[in-house]
């Protein structure tokens, strides 16, 4: 979790990683998004619909980016994530893909994560035209607003 050192948070089961990769491929060339509740073998994947294009269509001045370069959770999933944070089995990871640009924690990712304030790590998936190259897991640094890489997951030909 954010600001803590937890081996469980970096131990995503291979099946969950592969499911995230399949989600990224299914939504390509748009960004996918979702979150993971629990950790280790207890991890449960929640795939979310990226609502960014809907927000952009209604209010392009406020939402200038499309789903090709941004993600927004819908209300149902946002509520599910928020409720989990007050439970015995909280969300531990929020994930999204970066189509064709690599896995890195962007300035926009940092701004959104700091604004949300969720005590989670962030997984960014490098989704290319013909493969998933890798995924990187980031955690907020304990003493400054930076997010640092804490784990790396090999890609797959999906």
From TrEMBL:
Task: Please list the residue ranges annotated as the JAB domain.
Answer: 13-132
Do you know which SUPFAM superfamilies this protein is assigned to? JAB1/MPN domain
A Pfam family in this protein?
Prok-JAB
The UniProt keyword set, sorted, is:
Hydrolase, Metal-binding, Metalloprotease, Nucleotidyltransferase, Protease, Transferase, Zinc
Give the GO biological process terms: proteolysis
Annotated Gene Ontology MF terms?
Answer: metalloexopeptidase activity; nucleotidyltransferase activity; zinc ion binding
Q: Quote the Gene3D superfamilies the UniProt record gives.
A: Cytidine Deaminase, domain 2
Q: What is this protein called?
A: Sulfur carrier protein adenylyltransferase ThiF
């Amino acid at each position: 979790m954010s600001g803590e050192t937890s081996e469980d948070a970096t131990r995503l089961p291979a099946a969950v990683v592969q499911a995230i990769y399949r989600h990224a491929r299914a939504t390509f060339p748009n960004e996918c998004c979702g979150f993971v509740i629990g950790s280790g073998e207890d991890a449960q994947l929640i795939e979310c619909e990226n609502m960014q294009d809907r927000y952009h269509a209604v209010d392009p001045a406020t939402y200038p980016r499309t789903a090709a370069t941004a993600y927004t959770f819908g209300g149902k999933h946002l509520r599910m994530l928020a409720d989990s944070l007050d439970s015995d089995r909280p969300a531990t990871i929020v994930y999204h893909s970066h189509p064709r640009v690599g896995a890195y924690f962007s300035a926009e990712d940092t701004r959104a994560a700091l604004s949300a304030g969720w005590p989670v790590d962030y997984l960014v998936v490098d989704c290319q035209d013909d493969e998933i190259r890798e995924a990187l897991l980031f955690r907020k640094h304990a003493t400054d607003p930076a997010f640092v890489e804490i784990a790396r997951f090999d890609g797959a030909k999906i």
